[in-house]
Amino acid sequence: MSTEVRVPTLGESVSEATVATWFKKPGDPVAADEMLCELETDKVTVEVPSPVAGTMGEIVAQEGDTVGVDALLAMIGASDGAATGETPAAKPAATSAPKAAKAEAVDVMVPALGESVSEATVASWFKQPGEAVAVDEMLCELETDKVSVEVPSPAAGVLGEILAAEGATVQAGGKLAVISGAAAGATPTPAQDAAPASEAGTVDRDVEDAPSAKKLMAEKGLSRDQVSGTGRDGRVMKEDVQKAGAAPAPQAAPAPTAPAQPAQTPRAPSPADDAAREERVRMTKLRQTIARRLKEAQNTAAMLTTYNEADMGGIMELRNEYKDMFEKKHGVKMGFMSFFVKACCHALNEVPEVNAEIDGTDVVYKNYVHMGVAVGTPNGLVVPVLRDAHKMGFAEIEKTIAEMGRRARDGKLSMADMQGGSFTISNGGVYGSLMSSPILNPPQSGILGMHKIQERPMVVKGQIVARPMMYLALSYDHRIVDGKGAVTFLVRVKEALEDPRRLLMDL
């Protein structure tokens, strides 16, 4: 009897995903709830567990294939004993004779990729054809427009043909490679097969670095010991080599001294010479999606930006006075973002159209505030959402932002974490930005830009004094938000920041 493995629900309005990695191969034994494959959407990675214990059967959706919700991924057959009718007494004999185990080929498929994500790019292969692999050992890494997805081996055996090379675009559910020699009941030791003898003075490593990382290390003249791996089990990724910095390239052997040549007039470099010094790198899926969505926002919304500035002295004094007590009680540091979230919630209550959106010919007003907080990651900008931020206190806001920031940098955000936002705050000040015009995050009608706090001469009660000032920028959709509403919103934010006590008294 066989059990179907189907694509789970992927999230709000998510209809398809890409099969990124199969951790099991046909013929591999699987336990109930053991991870079978990984699917990628445009936002998150979804792991698909086995619904039952048994033996991995046919893989219907190969790595790279695009699959819809509830689509058939694979079949799980009964375990060897149940399928063949072996008695318990006969099974140990089969186990003691691994040569009798049937070797099968197992397909490595692209897992589901997430909401509306139909394809991914093969970033790195960690294994090469002919190398032994263990169950769940990482074979390759896929890139979508939001996250990177590692594809585990669905079975133990030997990596056979690689069907999607590095740089190739694969569809959700497509086939990536084939694992040959997968034997049920056998316990392969890929680390021993891959490195049967280590040279004197070296340490055996069970983890294979990404091929792209090894290539880049060679180009930069870096040894393995000079690079710290951040991949699974310490695997060195391409980004790790880039962060390690370029070590001095090995000195080439001096060329034989050539006879002195007469001086030649330097010639102008040709286009071919320039091309040889250029590097063409394909945009990641995340960067492609960011570019597309930003351009869509400009083409769709009647976007306008209004500016103001706030004296941050009041907040800074309040933080200095209570930050130690706050951290001691709540276990989290008091930052500026909680003040901005509270100030925006206060202002949105007075100017609800900034918290609304256009749906066809209707305006949808939100009686809640789901606050998006833009977070920069090594792969691009993501916007996790603080749901019902208007009900949160300072400590809860700080804890939630800190946790989502960590998950964003680790690529662990789920689709639910980034959906449903009604307003967004973007803090360019952490990178030193003094002034900018943020772009809307559709279908939202407003986004607030924070900037660098910088001391500037200000007139206070007739005296010129240095004050810690921050420029504020509100970009809004002029189709729904009038200038009066936008300016009123920004003034209310400014007032709440300059006198935080107003938040307590709802003024």
Automatic annotation (TrEMBL):
Keywords: Acyltransferase, Lipoyl, Transferase, Tricarboxylic acid cycle. SUPFAM superfamilies: CoA-dependent acyltransferases, Peripheral subunit-binding domain of 2-oxo acid dehydrogenase complex, Single hybrid motif. It catalyses: N(6)-[(R)-dihydrolipoyl]-L-lysyl-[protein] + succinyl-CoA = N(6)-[(R)-S(8)-succinyldihydrolipoyl]-L-lysyl-[protein] + CoA. InterPro entries: 2-oxoacid_dehydrogenase, 2-oxoacid_DH_actylTfrase, Biotin_lipoyl, CAT-like_dom_sf, E3-bd_dom_sf, PSBD, Single_hybrid_motif, SucB. The keyword Iron-sulfur does not apply. Its cofactor is (R)-lipoate. It comes from the Bacteria. Residues 186-197, 260-273 have a biased composition (Low complexity). One of its GO terms (molecular function) is dihydrolipoyllysine-residue succinyltransferase activity. Residues 2-77, 105-180 form the Lipoyl-binding domain. Its EC number is 2.3.1.61. Pathway: Amino-acid degradation; L-lysine degradation via saccharopine pathway; glutaryl-CoA from L-lysine: step 6/6. GO terms for biological process: L-lysine catabolic process to acetyl-CoA via saccharopine; tricarboxylic acid cycle. Residues 208-245 form the Peripheral subunit-binding (PSBD) domain. Forms a 24-polypeptide structural core with octahedral symmetry. Part of the 2-oxoglutarate dehydrogenase (OGDH) complex composed of E1 (2-oxoglutarate dehydrogenase), E2 (dihydrolipoamide succinyltransferase) and E3 (dihydrolipoamide dehydrogenase); the complex contains multiple copies of the three enzymatic components (E1, E2 and E3). Belongs to the 2-oxoacid dehydrogenase family. This is Dihydrolipoyllysine-residue succinyltransferase component of 2-oxoglutarate dehydrogenase complex. The lineage of its organism: Bacteria, Pseudomonadati, Pseudomonadota, Alphaproteobacteria, Rhodobacterales.
